[in-house]
Design a protein that fits this description.
Elements (H helix, E strand, L loop, with lengths): L6 H6 L19 H4 L4 H9 L5 H14 L6 E3 L2 H16 L11 E5 L14 H4 L9 H8 L3 E6 L40 H8 L5 E6 L5 H7 L2 E4 L4 H4 L23 E6 L2 H12 L13 E5 L11 H16 L3 E5 L1 H6 L12 H11 L5 H4 L10 E2 L7 E2 L6 H22 L3 E5 L18 E4 L2 E4 H5 L5 H5 L3 E9 L2 E8 L5 H15 L13
Parallel strand pairs: 2-3, 2-4, 7-8, 7-11, 9-10
Antiparallel strand pairs: 1-3, 4-6, 5-6, 5-14, 11-15, 12-13, 14-15
Helix pairs in contact: 4-5, 8-9, 11-19
């Protein structure tokens, strides 16, 4: 059992220390604090113009990380490699060498994603000691080829040993490495499973990051940390019957081996920067933001805000955001969000690899490490489904053949598609999560744990994925952007579109964020050392 900690001890004690290179503090004389506030595009532009050296920028971000190491957002950070890569870029620039548009921009990468020469833990301490890939994931390699500098591998829950719907999936609690913390309140979660990314972005330690999203793992941290994150199209329904499945992003380099639902997802502090990162990955430019007077957006009916997991303060925040969009000219059309969320309940798709597939991957990639070792600190997934089990469990879905499951998903997708066509919608919009960041369970997440929302107690993991779980089953793109603040904590607003409409959704998100504006930065001390 973990020792309980107080807010005072969180603020005074770092989880671990990061050694600083000689002269690192000198970056403060060059506007180090201001450098940490640069967004992705602004940093890339300043670097390209020679107004900022890659080494100076990297040094400022390393200093910021050292000051906020108690966020526990990082699993691996090689300071010398970061600085050496940055110096190499500066030398190339000084010699008029060919550089890509991201040259010198540090990015964080969720530690479920391969980066050549860095161990990939996927949140599992046993795996970290045995697996260091020789090749980066294709998405990461694409960014590195454009000059991006991998700053750190970031904390996620145990993606290898948990399996299924783990209670840590939405919180980044980790029994090997501890819990990541939210910069807005160090006793609260940054969300998960890409929670380390969310914490670093909110804390102004990196300008961009690459996460992974299965059922909300990019969008939940975006909501809790006041940033933006995209789950790109995965075309799930089409891929269930296709011999040549496709996703907007290649999923090469995700650990453990991905299924239909898993995808990389870009994260930044603004939608405009997420779009910039998406364009760097795909080569597809984001179109100009639309005039909101020409846009129709679906929003939940009033009865949606009566669900148990809905925090009244979040409901008020989202409704105020909708009012701003309406005032800017957008046409808002009410629809039954709960119907959309329930469409695939009888055809549930598993998340993550089956046990044998994981065992086979370990045998091929980690000689000397067996399945029992990586499962040693497993958090048992919730036993939610039963055939006539105790009150509170959900009846198990019927056993289905692949053909029967495909029929269910095709029928439900037709309902989703018809909503867009019938109403002429550019997107549907809803709260990314119906409550703000919960407090971290200081004794570790446990199956079927509950949290208090308003005057009710709700199942935490089910509450976290209330709105984020349906879209991936359709393969739809989902974008979370800052929607405002509730009780001093960020609230995320989600936009969701039709599969393949990622660029249009990002353009709409840029238009929406111009109306809604940014949320305040976290107000923790500038330095804790």
């Amino acid at each position: 059992m973990r020792a309980k900690i107080s807010r005072r001890s969180v603020l005074k004690t770092s989880v671990y220390a990061v050694p600083l290179a000689m002269g690192l503090a000198a970056c403060a004389k060059q506007g180090g604090d201001e450098l940490t506030k640069l967004g992705l595009r602004e940093a890339a532009e300043r670097l390209a113009k020679g107004e900022l050296s890659a080494e100076t920028y990297a040094s400022a971000l390393l200093k910021a990380h050292a000051a906020h190491a108690n966020l526990n957002a990082v699993v691996t950070l090689d300071e010398s490699r970061v600085l050496e890569t940055a110096r190499g870029i500066d030398k190339l620039r000084a010699g008029n060498g060919k550089l890509g548009p991201l040259a010198g921009v540090p990015i964080a990468v969720k530690d479920q994603i391969d980066v050549a020469g860095y161990p990939t833990s996927a949140g599992n301490g046993a795996l970290k000691a045995f697996y260091t890939p020789a090749q980066s994931a294709l998405v990461v390699e694409t960014l590195q080829n454009q000059g991006a500098v991998v700053f750190a591998k970031t904390l996620c829950p145990d993606m290898v040993g948990s399996g299924g719907l783990s209670p840590a999936s939405g919180t980044t609690d980790n029994r090997w490495f501890g819990s990541a913390r939210n910069p807005y309140d160090l006793l609260r979660t940054p969300g998960g499973s890409s929670g380390g990314n969310g914490a670093l972005l909110a804390a102004r330690i990196v300008p961009a990051a690459i996460g992974e999203d299965t059922g909300g793992s990019v969008r939940i941290p975006a909501s809790f940390c006041g940033i933006a994150g995209l789950r790109p199209s995965t075309f799930t329904v089409a891929n269930m019957s296709s011999a040549a499945p496709r996703k907007r992003y290649s999923d090469h380099g995700i650990v453990p081996p991905p299924g239909l639902l898993e995808t990389f997802g870009p994260m930044a502090r603004t939608v405009a920067d997420v779009a910039f990162l998406d364009a760097a990955i795909t080569g597809e430019a984001t179109p100009p933001p639309p005039d909101l007077k020409t846009v129709r957006i679906g929003i939940p009916r009033a009865d949606y805000y009566e669900i148990d997991a809905m925090d009244p303060a979040v409901a008020k925040c989202i409704q105020e955001a909708f009012a701003k969009l309406k005032a800017a000219g957008a046409t808002l059309v009410e629809f039954d969000l709960r119907l959309i969320q329930s469409l695939n309940e009888n055809g549930r798709l598993p998340a993550g690899p089956p046990r044998q597939a994981l065992a086979d991957w370990l045998e091929d990639n980690t000689p000397g490490l067996n399945l029992d070792a990586v499962m040693a600190k497993r958090i048992v997934p919730e036993a939610r489904f039963s055939q006539g089990g105790p009150a509170g469990t959900i009846p198990a879905p019927p056993a289905l053949s692949p053909e029967e499951r495909l029929q269910i998903f095709e029928a439900s997708f037709r309902v989703y598609e018809d909503l867009f066509k019938r109403q002429g919608l550019a997107a549907i919009a809803f709260p990314t999560v119906p409550f703000t960041a919960p407090f971290i369970n200081l004794n570790g997440d446990t199956p079927m744990q509950t949290i208090k929302v308003g005057d009710k107690r709700v199942d935490e993991i089910q509450g976290l994925i209330t709105t984020t779980f349906a879209g991936p089953r359709f393969g739809a793109p989902g974008l979370s952007l800052p929607g405002g603040m509730a009780n001093g904590l960020p609230v995320g607003l989600s936009l969701e579109g039709m599969p393949g409409d990622d660029a249009k959704l990002l353009a709409l998100g840029i238009a929406a964020e111009r109306v809604l504006g940014p949320v305040p930065e976290p107000k923790f001390p500038a330095s804790l050392v």
